[in-house]
Specification:
It is built from 10 helices and 10 strands. It is of the alpha+beta class. Helix 1 runs antiparallel to helix 2, helix 1 packs across helix 7 and helix 1 packs across helix 8. The longest helix has 30 residues. The two termini are 20 Å apart.
Length: 344
């Protein structure tokens, strides 16, 4: 049951992404030939008007296939015959819908359990935070210019910036002060620490705070995703550390089980909603990367077209996207194989 719930959540997020493309295609008068959830052979489908609606065998993916999207078409309602800004809006709508969904999920979580304030509960003896005079009750405002709204953002600093000094702005009794903390090696853990301690326990805020923190939650996950990509590119983490759809579904299933055992079905469902914030925001960011075959890669070509006011040769663009698609499929197969190996 837990795996089924995880697959359903994953599928809803992908479906909402494709719905963004679909709605803006219709809004711009573009013919949509097929709208599908999943990849591979069609399990079931029906035709309504010009569009075929399908459910595919493999639930990890989806598609909104538009007339003239990947080639020339004489149809007046083809994607390639529409103005460039109309096409940009259609391509960008998928990732934008992911961010909208992530914000909606964040609103549910913030309204239900609140947020973890970036307030210190104490400092570690002999570490930089204590030496700089920080103490319990201090609220961390920013670290190296990055505005913090949650204690999670304080704890992640050393993860994404190991060994680096931090210019910390904190607030005490309504007054803001600034200190520079240079991490110190903790011999017990082998990690370099700043010595600040806090709590991840959440507390509810006002309606205004709930709405604002829902946006900050999206910012938190966008930052996490970008920093994780930076670590991947710089070799600080490897491809083996990445999780694909199979791995994600497994993690979600295990999370559902553990949360249900600890707090009941309501807590388990809320944990899935919380997990969905990360998934939806992550999908939005990944699709905006300027990689051929992804929405970001297509946007690059469209923006170039808008600037030079001349279409790029469709055959050349198609070849670039084809090569990118092959590379992405190869990476997906590798990650899926890695997921299955880790499960077994």
């Amino acid at each position: 049951m837990n795996i089924l719930i995880a697959i359903i959540v994953f599928s809803i997020i992908i479906l909402f992404h494709e719905l963004g493309h679909f709605l803006f295609a219709k809004l711009n008068g573009i013919q949509v030939n097929e709208f599908s959830l999943g990849l591979g052979p069609t399990l079931v489908g029906f035709q309504k008007g010009e569009t075929k609606y399908s459910l595919k065998l493999f639930p990890f993916g989806g598609a909104c296939l538009m007339e003239g999207e990947d080639g020339e078409s004489s149809n007046e309602r083809a994607f390639n015959r529409k103005p460039v800004w109309a096409r940009i809006s259609v391509v960008a709508a998928g990732p934008v819908f992911n961010f909208i969904m992530a914000w909606f999920f964040a609103l549910i979580v913030m309204g239900s359990v609140g947020f973890d304030r970036p307030v210190l509960t104490g400092v570690m003896e002999g570490f930089p935070a204590e030496e700089a005079g920080l103490k319990a009750g201090d609220e961390i405002i920013s670290m190296n210019g990055y505005r913090t709204h949650f204690y999670r953002e304080v704890t992640q600093f050393s993860l994404f910036h190991p060994g680096k000094a931090a210019d910390v702005v904190y607030e005490r009794d309504g007054k803001r002060q600034k200190v520079t903390l240079t991490p110190k090696l903790d011999e017990e853990t082998g990690r370099e620490l700043l010595g600040m301690t806090g709590s991840l326990v959440r507390q509810k805020g006002s309606l205004t705070q709930t709405i604002a923190n829902s946006f900050y939650e999206i910012k938190y996950w966008v930052y996490n995703t970008l920093q994780s990509l930076r670590m991947l590119v710089t070799g600080k983490v490897g491809v083996d550390d990445m999780a694909g759809p199979v791995g994600i579904v497994k993690i979600m299933g295990e999370t559902y089980d553990s949360e249900q055992s600890a707090g009941g079905t309501g807590v388990a469902v809320l944990s899935m909603v919380n997990f969905s914030i990360f998934l939806s925001a992550n999908l939005g960011i990944m699709n905006l990367l300027p990689i051929p075959a992804l929405d970001g890669g297509r946007l690059v070509f469209l923006i170039i077209e808008a600037i030079r006011r001349k279409k790029i040769d469709p055959e050349k663009e198609g070849m670039v996207h084809f090569v990118g698609l092959i590379a992405l499929m190869a990476l997906m197969v590798f990650i899926m194989f890695n997921d299955i190996r880790n499960i077994l």
